[in-house]
Amino acid sequence: MKTRTTYKHICELCGKDFINHHKYQQFCSLTCGWKGRRIVRHKIIPLRAVRYTLNCDNCGKIIIKKEKDIKNRNRHFCSRACTYEYKKKSELGSANPNWKGGISKMIRTYRGAGNKLYKKGKYYERKSRKLLEEEGYYVVTSAGSKGIWDLVAIGEKDIRVIQVKCNSVVSKIEKKRMIEFFCPDNVKREIWIFHQKSNGYLLDVTKL
């Protein structure tokens, strides 16, 4: 019959010598193990487990991390919720590593017919949105740009609903729908047409 290997240990809580068959046993009994784990929670760490006491970078809560968990990391958080909340605060606008100046010039691939026109249209919608936001408007983009208006700009004194075009003319049917679209007195209906030039673009704004 094969005999099991025995190992000598010293209890990390009471200091008692004991022998058992586990190579990495820390405590001599269930009582010492229970008390030892409670001590770990209260930040008195046994010598075997090298850990560090840190503060959460978002809420300031005291947390305990192992050496491998803090290596090559500049920020430390107590939970995922704190991680996401910190990123929302610290990575807005130009602080975000993916910031492209407000308008993305990344070439994306879209499936289906007319993908080039779709990319161009979305680019000038973002361009229009940036121009309006610089004027102090809060801008909402219509879902999928399938309606009459592409953008809704909300200001302190007025609201502007805008159809954005690029190198194209608004058809008579579209224009008729825009004119017949009911709006309150403080809502302005506009058509923005971008004409591409070699050195940039020319914006033509038509108010209905």
At a glance:
With 208 residues, the chain is α+β, with helices and mostly antiparallel strands. It has 5 helices and 9 strands. It has a 5-stranded mixed beta sheet, covered by helices on one side. Strands 1-2 form a two-stranded antiparallel sheet. It has a two-stranded antiparallel sheet with strand order 3-4.
Mean pLDDT: 77
Total strand segments: 9
Order of helical and strand elements: EEHEEHHHEEEHEE
End-to-end separation in angstroms reads: 97 Å
**In angstroms, what is the radius of gyration?**
32 Å
Shape: rod-shaped
- Which parts are unreliable, with pLDDT below 50 for 5 consecutive residues or more? 104-110
Main sheet?
5 strands, mixed
Work out the count of structural domains. 3
Strand content: 25-35%
CATH topology name of the largest domain, in short, is: Trna Endonuclease, Chain: A, domain 1
What's the helix count? 5
Q: Helix/strand/pairing class, anyone?
A: alpha+beta
CATH class identity of the largest domain: Alpha Beta
**Helix coverage percent of residues?**
25-40%
Annotated CATH architecture of the largest domain: 3-Layer(aba) Sandwich
